[in-house]
Amino acid sequence: MEIFDLTIHELHEKLKAKEVSSVEATRAMLERIEAVDGQVNAYITVTPEQALVEAEAADKRIAAGDIAPLTGIPVGLKDIFITKGIRTTCGSRILENFVPPYDGTAVAKLKEQGAVIVGKLNQDEFAMGSSNESSYFGPVKNPWDLEVTPGGSSGGSAAAIAARTATATLGTDTGGSIRQPASHCSCVGLKPTYGRVSRYGVIAYASSLDQVGPLTRDVTDAALLLGAVAGHDPKDSTSVNTPVPDYAAGLQAGVKGLKIGLPKQYFIEGLDPDVKRAMDEAIALYKSLGAELREVSLPHTEYAVATYYLIATAEASSNLARYDGVRFGHRADDARGLKEMYAKSRAEGFGSEVKRRIMLGTYALSSGYYDAYYVKAQKVRTLIMQDFLNAFNEVDVLLTPIAPTPPFKIGEKLADPLQMYLSDIFTIPVNLAGTCGISIPAGFSAAGLPIGLQLIGKPFGEATILSTAYAFEKETQWHLKKAPL
Amino acid sequence: MKITRSEVEHVARLARLELSDSELDTFTGQMDGILAYVEKLNALDTEGIVPTSHAVPMENAFRPDQPADSIGVEAALANAPLRAESFFRVPKVIE
């Protein structure tokens, strides 16, 4: 067992017992990044100097007896998180040289605990993608098979966990961007309820859907990292003022008598046989642990992808209007006049997936189409939310696959954006409903590729999905299997 | 056809995106396919359904109107592609 293999809670114990220093742990992680990230491309920017300064500060705190769960722990951040003095690209050429003047709230909270930031992680450009192929900084490779995508958009955040190049990472999830890569890389990824974690200092994609969450090696770490970043923030008016429970303390709650719903629309024909088998095994395990499983219905599931690609693109077209070459970001240097400067700077700065979504969103919001597309989608969103409310009147948690198939090959779905969008069918509804979901390792395909299991909770029901996930992890131990790297 | 090439050109102007001919061709085909797909929402009767803008009930978040620290002119201008004194410099606006 190397230092870089450890979980947050394992490394915490060693730091506390002074068996390992944060400087040693940080050096081990930086060496590991140096050794393997050339193959994986999980990092856009590595920050060794700052990391070692932070590690020394953490060691001083620990020596003084002041240690929080994340003190001295090497973490990576999706490059969507604004970091003071550290280049933040969001995977885009338009922000290639952007060095933010402040830290966002989630990052500030990690720093308050004394976490060590080792670098900024690769992602789909502006978090738009399901495969990490839209990054300006090149695709991320899946550590389980370097020809396969790690999923997206937080692909670097998931691949770094699987490659053991960060102890834990933060990602964001707008339509599945934490849970789907977690599933594809065999790690734990949690999308909290909308409003649970502040988005202040997180580059906006679709503001009614975006949430911040942890990607980790096990469920205990997800509980610790979520606890560190969750909570109300006066700087994010959409963050909700609800107390943050001690998620780690509640993990042992067990599943005896827990009502788990199986949405029939998620167990369809065409589900990959390996995924189906993993789900059947999970269902059998939960039964044997005393949970009560029953079928439920989410009748509007088939409309979720269409609803999402109208709402998310509309919001994106508005959010990304700020990239105009005036105050920060790329500016075309040969433009005549202001309007041409906008159009050229954006044309040069954005990649094709981002352009496509800005175009779709602009169309959906444009005069004559606003009611037919955008408002229609918002109404269907209401129906999808009601499906979840009705299901949660009957059950405590929903169990579903994360994706219809194991991770796909790099390049496989690039030519057909709609096919790529449809691969998010099981994660998107959770964002539309604004509730929470977690992906946990649930086995491997015949080809040895990871398969994830999704547990969906009631709004602000993170503690319940975490304890439900913990019960599964304790019995299966899939999370202990390491990628061959 | 859900969308024509000239409509795509119009949308690109609205979005302040200069697209090449081949991008216009590709996007016309792809947007047409995606718009045909989202057409399925019309199968649902949404008469009387209230649109959802945020999934969690939100109220306006008020705070006292008191001055607080800001990042300052130098930090705000540090990423400017072009500046002049304490301003962002842009090409001529009025033609």
Named at the architecture level, the CATH assignment of chain A is Alpha-Beta Complex
Q: What is the CATH class designation of one domain in chain B?
A: Mainly Alpha
Give helix and strand order of chain B, one letter per element, not per position.
HHHEE
> What is CATH's topology name of chain A?
Amidase signature (AS) enzymes
Query: Which pair has the most extensive contact?
Result: A-B, 72 and 52 residues
**Could you tell me the number of beta strands of chain A?**
11
Structural class by helix and strand composition of chain A: alpha/beta
CATH class of chain A: Alpha Beta
User: What's the main sheet of chain B like?
Assistant: 2 strands, antiparallel
Largest beta sheet: strand ordering of chain B: 1-2
Q: Indicate the overall shape of chain A.
A: globular
Distance between the termini of chain B: 38 Å
SSE sequence of chain A, one letter per element? HHEHEHEHEHEEHEHEHHHHEHHEEH
Number of helices of chain B: 3
Q: Specify the oligomeric state.
A: heterodimer
Q: What is the averaged pLDDT score of chain A?
A: 97
The averaged pLDDT of chain B comes out at 93
Unreliable stretches of chain B (pLDDT < 50, length at least 5) are: none
Please state the CA-atom Rg of chain B, rounded to the nearest Å.
Answer: 22 Å
